[in-house]
From TrEMBL:
GO terms for cellular component: plasma membrane. It comes from Veronia pacifica. It is a multi-pass membrane protein. InterPro entries: MMPL_dom (IPR004869), Mycobact_MmpL (IPR050545), SSD (IPR000731). The chain crosses the membrane at residues 12-30, 223-242, 249-269, 275-297, 318-337, 349-372, 402-418, 603-625, 632-652, 658-679, 706-726, 738-758. Residues 244-371, 630-757 form the SSD domain. The keyword Methyltransferase does not apply. Belongs to the resistance-nodulation-cell division (RND) (TC 2.A.6) family. MmpL subfamily. Keywords: Cell membrane, Membrane, Transmembrane, Transmembrane helix. This is RND transporter. Coiled coil: none annotated. It is found in: Cell membrane.
Length: 773
């Protein structure tokens, strides 16, 4: 591989031609790429929770959809004008793409008894005049029925909701969610013209998926380009050459196009994870290029010619670049331990991209530099050398103070790190001025939360849901669920049975209870189902053979920690009530729960694999540096930045979301890059016969500026990403900038101090001969 890099200097035109041919061929595959951001891409096809949710949606009506919330300025839903608007909008909602069920207070299937007949009709039918008496009747029914109150109408009667269930096609559902959401937004824009006094909000799975898509698109079209511009400007300033900046920029672009092109050739798509690959590869490509360029410039300042300067740069940096790239790739490949395909695919693609960046940095970059005119850097050498040597001298002088101070900081950070908790709240992914977040928080305050948990309970036999024992079991759970503070609304089949029993007894409230026997319950159910209109049947609560029922819980906009805790309490309730239904089986599902678990399992897998990665990296460094001591010492600068970074995060926030769970892996490449380059330069000097102090000064002088330039450029770039309105990207940018900066501080202060303390032993003459050979 080193010969390949030397060949690129001797035959630059051939090297550029071959490299560009490979990049162009690979980039053709990018035409096959498309973005897919629906929830299914986060889970393996055989994931138990995914299978349970798919089983629920196949058994009952699909719960994915939209909720249109109406809030009139007069604070009263129950007026002729507002009820007419809800009825009109309910009818229009049937035309929303992919909609298969529309529920509102106006088409709520109200039951009443007339003589011996059961009458089932819309609560607000179009053939009944909306006079004061009728409106008062509608209000009384709506606010007293558990199926309506708290779900379709607020308990105060000031807010109403229209729930739209959707049946989506297989495959990419992001586009389908987006299409439906845009259709509703256009519909509401038209309605607002004639009803300016009504405030509308849009929530639900389709709305939040669209919000995710728009956030990713916004960052991709604004912040990420701005990040690249910022990095470009800083590179130009720090490298003091627009030609060197363009050479680095070309490596960044070719690395990204080749990597994403290969993904397209593979026939895959971009996800919420892999869409961040360009940002990651930019950081790693910059690190590779800056090391080659700064050493090359250093040699030019020493008076060497271009070819000789490039040869020295590649000889000095090749092994460090190789070690860094391999160890970084190993780190990314360990993301296959994640249970989420989004993260495992991110790791695999990143590992490929890392090696592409390495190959192009030691082939295409030197070939370009040979053909470019050598810029004049005279007059700057002395000042830069003085700064780094002065820093080295200061560290050497105070190293006995630095280590204890560093140990205290690390220890305090480790304690603060324990304050972090995994707590994803998708609603809070967005800025407070984001329209979706405002709608979700407004709806939670005035009506109910947005998250839904489905509790499917099976009786174990066909028609078993009409058994008195089973119905009492469901009723007990329903009553318990309505007492839980996290649950805003409960939809249960037992409410319908009690209502039917009451209405079949002339509306006598004494009979507002479950039917006493199975035959009567089955009779009521059949009579009710035969009376229901198309699209409003009971398939959203009962399966086909009537062996199981779905109890739907609408919960507050909770974080993942609270959702998992609520799920545990539900499971405990059923476990402690097996005697009331011995043959019952329970399945608890919901997209919110699925994501709550995936954040927890991913963080656990990351924490479990990180020590393994650090050990593997250290073993590789022991082999590459041929030094057990240096390999062991390398654990400190590779592990400490993440500990201090997450300790700091524990003090300022304490909440870890899905984006932060990958920061350690995301920044590991830069962290390892800094320590490896410092250690390889240090070892090079030691093998030449320098003592520890001289070797540290040599490392600072040769690689110090490169580390400083890389860190400053990347911190500036990630700081731009930290201004994202999408919290996942903002937190990831903030934390990445913090960890990368801490890594530089550790490599400049603690790593030399550790070497001065633990690497005093003289290097052998054999090692010197090895180096000279």
């Amino acid at each position: 591989m080193n010969r390949l890099s030397q060949w690129s200097i001797v035959h630059p035109v051939w090297c550029i031609g071959i490299a560009l041919f490979f990049v162009l061929f690979a980039s053709i595959g990018a035409k096959n790429l498309y973005f897919r951001g629906d929830y299914k891409v986060f889970f393996e096809q055989d994931d138990p929770k995914m299978l349970a949710y798919q089983n629920e949606t196949a058994t009952y009506s699909n719960a994915d959809g939209l909720i249109i919330v109406l809030s009139p300025a007069d604070g009263n839903i129950f007026t002729k004008k507002n009820l007419s608007l809800i009825r009109e909008l309910t009818e229009s909602a049937w035309l929303i793409p992919y909609s298969n069920r529309v529920s509102s207070v106006t088409n709520y299937q109200h039951t009443s008894a007339e003589d011996d007949d059961l009458v089932v009709e819309d609560l607000v039918p179009d053939y009944r005049p909306l006079n004061a008496k009728r409106i008062d009747y509608i209000r009384r029914i709506a606010l007293s029925q558990p199926e309506v109150s708290g779900a379709l109408v607020s308990v105060r009667g000031d807010v109403a909701a229209i729930s739209v269930s959707m049946f989506l096609k297989d495959g990419d559902q992001t586009g389908q969610f987006y299409e439906a959401t845009r259709y509703v937004e256009r519909l509401l824009d038209d309605i607002k013209k004639t009803h300016p006094d009504v405030e509308f909000h849009l929530i639900g799975n389709a709305a939040i998926n669209t919000a995710f898509f728009e956030a990713a698109t916004s960052d991709a079209t604004t912040l990420i380009p701005l990040m690249f511009i910022t990095v470009t400007l800083f590179l130009t300033f720090m490298l003091a050459s627009w030609r060197l900046m363009l050479a680095t920029l070309l490596i960044i672009i070719t690395t990204n196009t080749a990597t994403l092109g290969l993904l397209g050739w593979y026939g895959h798509y971009l996800t919420n994870g892999t869409v961040n690959i360009p940002t990651l590869l930019m950081t790693l490509a910059i690190a590779d290029c800056v090391h080659v360029i700064t050493t090359y410039v250093h040699a030019l300042r020493e008076g060497k010619q271009k070819v000789e300067a490039l040869t020295d740069s590649l000889s000095l940096n090749f092994m460090a670049l190789l070690i860094t790239s391999v160890t970084t790739a190993i780190g990314f490949l360990t993301m296959n331990a994640s249970t989420s395909p989004v993260l495992s695919e991110f790791g695999n693609l990143a590992a490929i991209g890392v090696m592409i960046a390495f190959i192009l940095s030691i082939t295409l970059l030197p070939a370009i530099l040979v053909l470019l005119p050598a810029d004049s850097f005279h007059g700057k050498k002395a000042q830069q050398g003085k700064i780094m040597v002065r820093l080295a001298d200061s560290v050497i002088t105070h190293h006995k103070k630095l280590l204890p101070i560093g140990a205290v900081v690390v220890l305090l950070s480790a304690f603060a790190l324990l304050k972090n908790e995994i707590n994803d709240n998708p609603v809070q992914y967005f800025d407070s001025d984001n329209s979706f977040r405002q709608s979700a928080e407004y709806t939670e305050k005035r009506l109910s939360g947005m998250a839904r948990i489905g509790v499917s309970v099976s009786s174990g036999k066909p028609q078993g849901i009409t058994e008195p024992e089973f119905l009492r079991h469901i009723e007990e759970f329903t009553d318990w669920a309505r007492q839980q503070p996290e649950i805003d609304h409960v939809s249960s089949i037992t409410d319908i049975f009690k209502r039917l029993n009451r209405d079949m007894h002339g509306g006598d409230t004494e009979y507002d209870r479950l039917p006493p026997d199975s035959a009567l319950a089955a009779q009521y159910l059949l009579l009710f189902e035969l009376s229901l209109p198309y699209g409003l049947d009971l398939t959203n609560q009962l399966n086909i053979d009537k062996s199981s029922t779905l109890v739907s819980l609408i919960v507050k906009n909770l974080g993942s920690k609270e959702l998992v805790a609520l799920e545990s309490r539900i499971n405990e309730w059923f476990s402690s009530h097996t005697s009331s239904c011995t043959k019952c089986t329970v399945s608890i599902t919901g997209t919110s729960l699925m994501f709550a678990h995936i954040g927890e399992t991913n963080m656990i897998s990351m924490l479990q694999t990180l020590p393994v990665v650090l050990v593997l990296i250290s073993l590789l460094l022991i082999f590459a540096l041929r030094s057990l001591r240096l390999g062991v010492i390398s654990i400190l600068p590779n592990a400490i930045p993440a500990v201090i970074g997450f300790g700091f995060w524990g003090m300022i926030s304490g909440e870890i979301n899905l984006g932060l769970s990958v920061v350690t892996t995301l920044t590991l490449g830069i962290v390892v890059d800094d320590s490896v380059h410092f250690l390889t330069k240090y070892r090079y000097a030691r093998l030449k016969g320098d003592d520890v102090e001289q070797a540290i000064r040599f490392a600072f002088e040769t690689v110090g500026r490169a580390l400083w330039v890389t860190t400053l450029v990347l911190v500036a770039g990630f700081s731009v990403l930290a201004s994202s309105s999408f919290r996942v990207n903002a937190d990831m940018g903030t934390m990445s900038a913090i960890v990368i900066f801490i890594a530089l501080v550790v490599d400049f202060l603690l790593l030399p101090a550790a070497l001065l303390l633990f690497d005093r032993q003289s290097y052998s003459l054999k090692g010197q001969r090895e180096n000279s050979a």
